[in-house]
Amino acid sequence: xxxxxxxxxxPADEPVIRHLADAVAPRAARTLIRxxxxxxxxxxxxxxxxxxxxxxxxxxxxxxxxxxxxxTYAPACGLLRVRVGDHSHEVPVLRHPSLSQDHGRGIAIVxxxxxxxxxxxxxAEGKCVWFELQLPRAERGEGSWN
Length: 146
Fold this sequence. Notes:
five-stranded antiparallel β-sheet
């Protein structure tokens, strides 16, 4: 698990917080990320959408009750931070499923594609799983991910 977080001196937008509690939560989270990142390169948006969807789905499936999604985006430096909290005290485990297994890849995907990720807690109220993603952007003089 990568624990080094990125630092951005540019101001971030106010965090967007959503309370999600059912099977449509991942879809709502994907829609939110697409709207927030509409000026970023399409491939960066899709990576952010995938990672967010994985964390929200994990929280809805394995957490107890409502999941809380917090998204902080600093467009000037292209830094996205997504936190998903739930009431479970069990932390996600990086698994290495066989090709025939149809689940167990979420945290591996987050680890592979995020700039860094981690877990806050568990504590009395549960835990929070988060990731950061440094987004490339032409206006910042950065290349694409291709």
